[in-house]
């Protein structure tokens, strides 16, 4: 029996979360599985990755193959959580911040000129 460690999709329309499962490669994606070894939620910030790395290593030692997606999740889980999350900003917000920085620099220059006199 060819065994794979892969993702099984759950959740509602456009709101997915995934279970990391050990399953026969011939069974359907969301069908019967042997064991659940983790969960992955891409919608949270930062993305939630809960894996039982010991069970995954045990299944790999028995010959189970990781899919590409699960291999990436395992690498991310082994690396640990990101220490810094970068907040995404819109073009309008970036332009507004640049304008505020420009005004602050002009005010500082005017203040420095006033202090020299």
What does it look like?
This protein is of the alpha+beta class. Helices cover 40% and strands 28% of the residues. It contains three helices and five strands. It is elongated. The termini are far apart. The mean pLDDT is 90.
Rg result: 24 Å
Low-confidence spans: pLDDT under 50, at least 5 residues?
Answer: none
What proportion strand?
25-35%
Structural class: alpha+beta
Number of helices: 3
Main sheet characteristics: 5 strands, mixed
Terminal CA distance reads 86 Å
Overall residue-averaged pLDDT value: 90
Strand line-up in the sheet with most strands: 4-3-2-1-5
Topology of this structure?
Elements: E1 3-12, E2 15-24, E3 35-41, E4 48-51, H1 53-61, E5 65-66, H2 68-79, H3 91-116
Question: How would you concisely characterize the structure shown here?
Answer:
The relative contact order is 0.14.
Give a quick set of tags describing it.
28% strand, 3 helices, elongated, 117 residues, 5 strands, alpha+beta, 40% helix, five-stranded mixed sheet
């Amino acid at each position: 029996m060819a065994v794979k460690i892969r993702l099984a999709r759950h959740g509602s329309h456009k709101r997915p979360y995934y279970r990391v499962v050990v399953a026969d490669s011939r069974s359907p994606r969301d069908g019967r599985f042997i064991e659940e070894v983790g969960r992955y939620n891409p919608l949270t910030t930062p993305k939630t990755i809960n894996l039982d790395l010991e069970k995954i290593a045990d299944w790999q030692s028995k010959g189970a193959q990781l899919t590409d997606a699960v291999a990436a999740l395992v690498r991310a889980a082994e690396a640990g959580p990101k220490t810094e999350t970068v907040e995404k900003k819109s073009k309008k917000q970036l332009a507004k911040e640049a304008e505020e920085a420009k005004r602050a620099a002009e005010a500082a220059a005017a203040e420095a000129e006033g202090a020299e006199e």
